[in-house]
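Good morning C.,

I know you're traveling, so I'll keep this short. The sequence:
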Amino acid sequence: MKIRLNHIVFPVLGILLTASLVLMIVLTVSVLKSPSGPEPPKDETGTAAETDPPSSGGHASLLEETPDAGQAYQDSLIFVGDSTTAHLRSRGVLSGGTETKQVWCPANNTLLLTSQITSLEIVYPDTGESMTIPAAAGLKKPAYIVFTIGINGVTSSVKNKDDFLYNYGKLTKAVAAASPETAILIQSVFPIASNCDAFSKTPAEVNADIRTLNAWLLEFADENGYRYLDTHSALADDGGMLPVSYQNGDGIHLTAEAYNLVLQYIRTHACPK
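The tokens, ready to paste straight into the viewer:
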């Protein structure tokens, strides 16, 4: 008896094709149900982009709320910065009033963060001499220095993060080398009020730039082992603006009431030694 080959081969091939099709369907369904889900979206650098904003916690440098550290703590602070720091003296809110020795500023009260920052001279109030900030730190060796730098040139600084943080780091590292026991506190840049017309941008745009600088400064403090004072949050309203009642007429410089709020925040977010 002759066996016709096609009667055997074709049915076998059909069975094999059907089995392969079933296997492919099973594998496809299992992939679709995989708990790993799709890959996260990538940004233009090819790095997985964040789908949620980063948590506000987890910053080792951020000074958290503490009991009020009192007048003795406040008196141990040296404030270094531009005119928003100089007005601490002119408002008379520190010990010694308008003759306080806790404020270090240039003679013209203007401090711009540039590559020459370590050569910039301030008036050392203990003697009236002009000297660099690191030299003054080496002479005084204060327990704490509060740096408040950034409002001058903010709209330019925000365009170049690397330069801004490099120059800030140049200054703080020079101070730390001159006075290793001094605790360095990075204070946030204060917001401006809606009546400020000192910039080419609107007050809302400038305040957005200030918030960017402050985010950089928090990151900078984290990375360098400094402490960060978020006094911006003590002054800004719900829209991120300085209330007009807290400024002295130009939208930038603070009233005595506002400075007292800043000092209260600093005392209640004290830096441990």
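Safe travels,
E.
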